[in-house]
Amino acid sequence: MTLSPQELVQATTFATKPVVALSEGSDPRVVQGALAARDAGFSDVILVGAEADILAELTRQGSEAGQGISIHDPLRSSLTEGFAAAFLELRKHKGVDAVKAQALVETPLVYAAMLVREGHATGTVGGAVATTSDVVRAAIQVIGKAPDAEMVSSFFLMYPPEEGGDNARAMLYSDCGLVIDPSAAELAAIASASAQSARTLLRQEPQIALLSFSTKGSARHPVIDKVTQAAALLSEQHPELQVDGELQFDAAFVPEVGARKSPGSAMAGHANVMIFPNLDAGNIAYKITQRVGGYAAIGPILQGLAKPANDLSRGCSAEDVTEMIAVTILQAQTAS
C-alpha cells in the first residue's frame, strides 16, 4: 500500500517544524487546508495576503492567528523592504527598477516566493486562485532552477480508489501541467526528474514508461520517433533506471498486454511513472483517470526548482491544499 503525502509526513520526524507559505491566504479552501495541516501537527503555515481578509476568514472558520498560523500582509510586513531590495538585485538585469521591484514584492505570489528564497519558509503553495503560469513565473523568477536540474517541469500523483481492481496502483503522471511540447531531450529530462520524484513521494523505485499511440514500432510517425529517441537518451544517460518506450498506455499498465506487445520487457505492464509525449496527452489523461477512473490526483507538483514551490488546481479542495503542503515538505526534506 502506498502512503499518501500526509501519511508520509506524519510518519517523519523533523529537527524543526516545517513552515509553508500559502500565497492565497484568505481563500476559504486554503485557510481550511492550512488549519488541517496545523492541527495534524506536521506544519506551521504563513497565510499571505490582506490581513483583514485573512482574519475575517479565520474567524468564519472558528480559528485565529497564532498557534502555528501566521499572517503576512505584503503591504504592511517589515520584511517587504528587504525583499524588494533583494528582488531588485535578482531581476535588474531584466530591466526591473526599484519601483517595479517594490510593486512586485507587494503581490502575494512574489512575496511568498521571497519568503522561501530568504529562508523564512520551507516552501510555498499557490494556484487556488492564480493561474499556473503566474505561479510558475513567480517560482522561477524568485526561487530559480536547481543547479543540477535541466529544466522545470510538473507532474501529478495519482492514487487508486479502494475498489480499483487488480492492476490499480499509485502512479506519477508527467508532464501534465507545464511543458507543452517537449523535445526528445526534454522528455528524457522530465523522465529523469520524475524518477526522483517517484522515490521521494511514492517511496517506490521508478519503472518508467514513455508513452505514445504506438508500441515498439506498431505505427510510424515523427511524433513517435521523438518518444523512442527520448527513451534511448534516458537509458544512455541513466542506465540505472528501468525504462521502456515507446509504449501505449495499456502496454505500460496491464501486465498481460505488456507481455504481448513488448515481449521480453520486465517493465512493460508494471510502470508507475507515465511520461506523456505532450501536454495535451498528459492533461487529458490525468483528468480521465481522475474523473472516470476514480483516482485521486494531487498536483500539479513542480520539479526542478532550487526550493519547493507548488501549484494548485483552481478546482482544488481544502484536502488538496493539505496534501500539497505535505508534498512541499517532503520535497524540501529530500532537497536538504
Structure description:
A 6-stranded mixed sheet has the order 8-7-9-6-5-10, sandwiched between helices. The mean pLDDT is 93. The protein starts with a helix and ends with a helix. It is of the alpha/beta class.
Briefly note the structural class of the backbone.
alpha/beta
The beta-strand count equals 11
Radius of gyration: 21 Å
Mean pLDDT: 93
Principal-axis shape equals globular
Largest sheet: 6 strands, mixed
Order of helices and strands: HEHEHEHHHEHEEHEHEHHEHEEH
Runs with pLDDT <50, length 5+?
none
Helix/strand layout:
Layout: H1 5-10, E1 19-22, H2 28-40, E2 44-48, H3 51-60, E3 69-72, H4 80-91, H5 98-105, H6 108-117, E4 123-126, H7 132-143, E5 153-159, E6 171-174, H8 184-201, E7 207-211, H9 222-237, E8 242-247, H10 249-253, H11 255-261, E9 273-275, H12 279-291, E10 296-303, E11 309-311, H13 318-335
Parallel strand pairs: 1-2, 1-4, 2-3, 4-11, 6-9, 7-8, 7-9
Antiparallel strand pairs: 5-6, 5-10
Helix pairs in contact: 2-13, 4-5, 6-7, 8-9
Write a short abstract of this structure.
The protein is of the alpha/beta class and 336 residues long. The protein has 13 helices and eleven strands. The protein has helices at residues 5-10, 28-40, 51-60, 80-91, 98-105, 108-117, 132-143, 184-201, 222-237, 249-253, 255-261, 279-291, 318-335, and strands spanning 19-22, 44-48, 69-72, 123-126, 153-159, 171-174, 207-211, 242-247, 273-275, 296-303, 309-311.
